[in-house]
Write a structure and sequence with these properties.
The complex is a heterotrimer of chains A (111), B (99) and C (529). Chain A is built from five helices and no strands. Chain A is mainly α and 111 residues long. Chain A has one domain. The radius of gyration of chain B is 17 Å and the shape is elongated. Chain C is built from 20 helices and seven strands. Chain C is globular, with a radius of gyration of 27 Å. The chains are: A mainly alpha (111), B mainly alpha (99), C alpha+beta (529). Chains B and C meet through α2, α3 and α4 of B and α1, α6, α8, α9 and α10 of C.
């Protein structure tokens, strides 16, 4: 459970990294991003990826960092494939990801 | 690259082979002596000294390998490898003798 | 070597990468599959499919195993009891007798159902996942020592190719997430970069730690320096559990197994046991060796307890508190073999391994494509280029085909023929050989497409073949929540789908190239110039 939360966080972070790139942002949202948006995505992504790393490490130091490497690989793979073949899906992910993350966080805390 | 492709002279091939030799064999012996010395110098138990030094060996080997290809002069590569390996081997012998 | 560091690294990346890329592909491919070694062994034994996870205590299973071996082989020189794990539900009970001088002792393996505690009926002779595990570093049909040196050498080249690749790919994070499938060689380059970068920590880790697993063959020097009798002396120091126990001729009448296990369970109540070995069970020098389970700890060697079977006393323990060097070395090997991984991490390992295979494959293909593009219209391709193209096709398309063949052979060979396990392996290599020969004779783009479709069909039919030859199929697996077996069918179908799409894509491209070739050629050349 907690590892799926970390995976989701990691994925969101790489979503942020991708959206912080002008070309990718434009192909997803159709407009060029301004400086502030790019910066926000980039800072946000760094914070979230750090959070994901901490969540992983909180479970087990060695095992957690191994899983973190795997999560990064998976996230980059999925984002790149979406970017190539299903660009418009990424737009809905902008709302879907935070919603899912908060839902999973609440579920984790309850259980 | 294209220049080299057009002029695959015997000399060029020889220098490439020699460089691979330097990187693979020279690098191997350099690393072997280097980690032997390291295992002698580490202030841990014998088992730990061996384990630490073998775990580092690949790092040293790959650095030497890259350096052998990055350096411009082939002769310098050979000279540097032979001299440094010799010096390390001497120190290893000296340290081993004094223990 | 070249005038700048950057250019010499480019040169190095190209040539070091190309020289052994087919061997590397084989190593990566077999290694990736080996992450599911026990699962494949399970799949290959339909008799074990219906076995449920044990509901009884480990202590009961150990007692059953000891009783079974006591009846079956009281005078063996070693008993071996492997306890079930979530990946392998059956209890392994094996024993071996001493052979005349110069011959290796041969193990006789049996499997017990952990719930009924009876031997499992209908086991077939197969190597299962162990075949791929061994293929990963012993390369089969080859002298073991030579094979391991070759693997070492290839891994070293891989590491060099990775490092030089990082150097030359300057915009390593800028190009991340980029894959442009429509643009010819550019698409292959994107696929190459993407598959390398997304699993870069994995690639570096797996190559480095892979070399570390064979390190005492590669660099015995520190051990030679510190120990009088070299690696042998080091091993005696490092593996106290592997010390030979001399057999005493005096017979042991009433073994004190119960006392030993009672002591163990009392002092280490939470310790799960991985396996139990008894040396010389019939003699007064009989010794019980208990290996603890590491769970998800990043450790390679198991914690170890040694009891005397005559008195039930604890003789020695090892690795209960590993030293720094052991943590580093054992940790590297543990991370490489991934034995610690739960299903989630195991799948991530698998995905990263596949990314590695794609990285190597796209690298090989790109090389051939670039050389072919550089050819003048009236120039015929050189022998080297033909060889590279044939090897590319034979390896990249032939290996998956051969793997499917191995699974088919497991299901279709009669259960009772002699040397069945070897025949399965023979099927693997025969299919690979045939694909390589075909690839040597027919290397056109159509051949790639043909191989892709053939692969798609073969992998698609595999779940059907499984359903016809065993009692289960995808639906029953899902209903009985047998996730491991269900994943096999799903992976087979996914593989078929990937090959099908690839075949379609290749067909599309072949047509495009044909129709636009004449107009595009000059423009392409100008760009390059």
């Amino acid at each position: 459970m907690i590892y799926s939360l970390a995976t989701l966080l990691c994925f969101s972070a790489f979503y942020g990294f991708a959206m912080a790139k002008t070309a990718h942002y434009k192909s997803v949202f159709g407009v060029r991003p301004n400086q502030t948006i790019t910066q926000r995505f980039s800072y946000g992504a760094w914070i979230i990826i750090l959070l994901s790393f901490i969540v992983n490490l909180s479970q087990a130091i060695g095992y957690g960092s191994l899983i973190f490497c795997g999560q990064m690989a998976l996230s980059v793979l999925v984002i790149s494939l979406l970017m190539t073949y299903k660009t418009h899906w990424l737009r809905s992910l902008f709302y879907l990801l935070p919603a899912l993350t908060s839902l999973l966080t609440i579920l984790t805390i309850i259980s | 690259m294209s220049q080299a492709d057009n002029a695959l002279t015997f000399q060029y091939r020889l220098s490439v082979a020699s460089r691979f030799c330097a990187a693979i064999l020279g690098g191997y012996f350099f690393t072997a002596y280097c980690i032997s010395l390291l295992s002698l110098l580490l202030p841990t138990s014998k088992v730990d000294a061996v384990l630490y030094s073998v775990c580092l060996s690949i790092l040293i080997y790959s650095c030497v390998f890259i350096a052998a290809f990055a350096a411009r002069s082939l002769i310098k590569v050979w000279v540097a490898l032979i001299i440094s390996t010799g010096v390390i081997a001497l120190i290893t012998n000296f340290v081993q003798g004094s223990i | 070597m070249k005038d700048t560091f950057f250019r010499s690294m480019t040169w190095l990346h190209t040539w070091v990468g190309l020289l052994l890329c087919w061997l590397l592909f084989l190593i990566f491919f077999a290694g990736t599959i080996s992450f599911f070694r026990h699962e494949i062994s399970l799949w290959n034994q339909p008799a074990v499919h219906k076995i449920e996870q044990p509901k009884v205590e480990q202590a009961t299973l150990i007692n059953t195993g000891l009783d079974y071996l006591q009846n079956k082989a009281p005078d063996a020189n070693r008993w071996w009891i492997g306890l079930p794990s979530p990946r392998q539900p059956e209890v392994h009970v094996s024993h071996r007798h001493s052979q005349p001088d110069g011959q290796r002792d041969k193990w006789i393996d049996e499997q017990l159902d952990p719930n009924t505690l009876n031997p499992i009926e209908g086991m077939v002779e197969t190597r299962g996942g162990n075949f791929f595990y061994r293929l990963h570093f012993d390369l089969h049909y080859m002298d073991r020592k030579l094979a391991r040196w070759l693997v070492c050498f290839a891994s070293l080249f891989m590491l060099i190719a990775l490092i030089s690749g990082i150097v030359i790919h300057k915009r390593i994070f800028k190009d991340l997430f980029q894959f442009r499938p429509q643009k010819g060689v550019r698409a292959w380059l994107d696929a190459h970069n993407l598959s390398s970068v997304l699993a870069l920590p994995f690639h570096l880790m797996i190559t480095y730690t892979g070399l570390v697993t064979l390190i005492f063959m590669l660099f015995p020097d520190p051990a030679n320096t510190l120990y009088e009798d070299g690696v042998k002396g080091f091993r005696a120091d490092f593996y106290p559990e592997r010390q030979r126990i001399e057999k005493s001729e005096q017979a042991l009448n009433s073994p004190a197994f119960d006392a030993a296990f009672a002591h163990f369970h009392q002092n280490w109540p939470d310790q799960k046991i991985k396996r139990v070995i008894v040396d010389h069970p019939s003699s007064i020098s009989a010794t019980i060796k208990i290996y603890g389970d590491n769970g998800t700890l990043i450790r390679d060697e198991y914690p170890y307890w040694q009891y005397s079977a005559a008195s039930g006393e604890l003789i020695k323990t090892a690795r209960l508190d590993p030293s720094g060097g052991e943590v580093l070395y054992g940790g590297m090997i543990a991370v490489h073999s991934g034995r610690l991984a739960h299903p989630g991490l195991r799948w991530l390992y698998f995905i990263c391994g596949i990314a590695g295979c794609i990285m190597i494959a796209t690298g090989c293909i790109m090389w051939a494509k670039r050389i072919r593009e550089r050819l003048k219209p009236n120039q015929s391709p050189s022998f080297g280029l033909k060889l590279v193209e044939a090897l590319n096709l034979g390896t990249i398309m032939g290996l998956p085909l051969a793997t499917a063949g191995f699974f088919y052979a497991n299901r279709l060979l009669p259960a009772d023929i002699a040397g069945r396990a070897d025949k399965e392996i023979l099927a693997f290599f025969l299919i690979w050989l045939v694909s390589a020969v075909v690839a040597g004779l027919w290397r056109a783009k159509r051949a790639w497409q043909g191989f892709a479709y053939l692969n798609a069909i073969v992998w698609l039919l595999l779940p059907i073949c499984n359903a016809l030859t065993t009692n289960g199929n995808l639906v029953t697996y899902l209903m009985d929540s047998k996730w491991i077996l269900a994943s096999f069918d799903l992976v087979f179908l996914a593989t078929a789908a990937v090959f099908f799409f690839q075949g379609n894509k290749l067909g599309l491209k072949a047509n495009q190239v044909k129709s636009t070739n004449r107009q595009k050629r000059p423009a392409g050349k100008e760009q390059k110039a």
